[in-house]
Amino acid sequence: MALFPESEAIFLKGLPSVPSAGDRLRQSDLARSYRQMAKGGVAWFYQGDFARRTAEWMKAHGGVVTAADFDRYEVVPREPVRGTYRGYEIVSFPPPSSGGVHVVEILNILERFDLAAMGDDSAEFAHVVAEAMKLAFADRARWLGDPDFARVPRGLVSKEYAAELARRIRLDRASVVASAGTPPETDRDWFTRERNRHTTHFSTADTEGNWVACTASLNTSFGSKVVVPGTGLLLNNHMDDFSAQPGVPNYFGLVGAEANAIEARKRPLSSMSPTLVLRDGQPILSVGAAGGPTIISQTLLAILRVIDFKKSPREALAAPRLHHQWKPDELHLERAWGEAVIAELRRRGHTVAVDASLGAAQAVGRDAQGQWSAAADPRGEGAAGVW
C-alpha cells in the first residue's frame, strides 16, 4: 500500500508500520464520495467525477481503463441458478460466478448419501463432502466462465449428472479426480444472458417477506491497494479471477481454462455464492460468505447443517469447516474437527492441511414455527452480536 501515496496517506498515515487497534481511521474523501453517490446516483460513478478521476489515474500510470469504458458498462440481469435438495428449493448466483452452479452441483451429489446418519462432526461426513467438492471444482476449472463468451452447460446442475459423479465416490478412500466430468448437453442447455479476500457478505430479511443475500468483493485484501485520488475508493484486483493461462493457478490456487480466459468486456469468474433456500415456496434461509473459493464450501456446509442436521444459523456457522478445490489436491480442515477425525481422513488417503479457521459467513433463517434467527460468523472480529 505504501507504493501508492493516496493509499499510504489514508491507511498507513506515514507510520513505520500498520496502524494498531484503537487508532482512529478517518476517510473524509470516502465520506464525500458516498454523499455524491447518494445525491447523484450511479451517474456520478459511471459518467461523472469518479470515472474521470479513475481514467486520469490510469493514464498517468500506464493503465488501459478509460472514462468511455465506465460509460459503456452495463449491469446484466441474469437468471438465477435453481435446484432442489431433499425437497427444499435452492436459488443461487449464476455464471459468471461459479458459486451457485457448484453449490447446487455438490448438493445434488450429496443427496445420494445419508449424511444425517453420519453426523456432521464425523470423518465419514467430512470425507464424502470433500470428495463431492473435488468433483465440482474440477468442473469449475474446465467449464465455468462468462456465459456471454463461453458455453457453460446447464447439465452441471442436473440430477442425472450428479448421480454419475456420486458413483465415483468411494466411502473408504480418497479418489483421484484426474479431470473434469462431461455433463449432458443440448443446443438449448447452456447458461445464457437474460435481459429481464476482501469480500463482504450480508444476509437480511424482513417481516414483509423480503429476503436478500448479497456478496460484494474487492478480491484480495484491499483489492489492488490503489485508492483513486480524491475519492477514497479502492480499486479491486479481480483480473486475478481470470485464467492467465490454462492450468496456471491464481492467488487462491484455482486453475481455469479457455472458458475463463481474458477478453475485452468479459466478466471474470468468481466464487461468490449468495443463496436463498425455500421450503414450500417460502424462504427459510439466506446465506453467503467471504473467503475466496472457500465461499462455495462455507455456503454449502451452512445449507447442509440447516437441512440435514436441523441446526440454527448460529449453530451452522459455528460448526467446523472444510474445503477442497481439486487443485492443489489438499483437504483443508479447521483444527476444531479434532485429532481423531484428522487422523482418519489422512488414513483414507487425504492430504490434510489444518487451519485455525476458514472464511466468514453470515446467515438469516426462519424455522417451521416462524421464529427468526440470524448469525454473524463467530470467526470474525468485531463487536457484532447474534440474536
Describe the protein:
The chain has two domains: 66 residues, no CATH class; 221 residues, Orthogonal Bundle (Serum Albumin, Chain A, Domain 1). 30% of the residues lie in helices and 17% in strands. A hairpin with a 7-residue loop joins strand 9 and strand 10. With 387 residues, it is an alpha+beta fold. The radius of gyration is 22 Å and the shape is globular. It has a six-stranded antiparallel beta sheet. Strands 9-10-11 form a three-stranded mixed beta sheet.
Describe the structure in brief.
This protein has 387 residues and is α+β, with helices and mostly antiparallel strands. It has helices at residues 5-12, 28-40, 42-46, 49-60, 67-72, 99-110, 115-118, 123-143, 159-166, 294-307, 313-318, 339-347, and strands spanning 81-85, 88-92, 152-153, 190-191, 199-205, 211-217, 275-279, 282-290, 322-323, 331-334, 352-355, 360-366, 372-376.
List keywords for this structure.
387 residues, 17% strand, alpha+beta, Serum Albumin, Chain A, Domain 1, 3-stranded mixed β-sheet
CATH architecture level-2 label of the largest domain: Orthogonal Bundle
Distance between the termini: 37 Å
Q: Please identify which CATH superfamily of the largest domain we are dealing with.
A: Gamma-glutamyltranspeptidase, large (L) subunit, C-terminal domain
Secondary structure class reads alpha+beta
Mean pLDDT comes to: 91
Adjacency order of strands in the biggest sheet? 1-2-7-8-12-13
Largest sheet: 6 strands, antiparallel
Text of the CATH class of the largest domain: Mainly Alpha
Q: What is the CATH topology descriptor of the largest domain?
A: Serum Albumin, Chain A, Domain 1
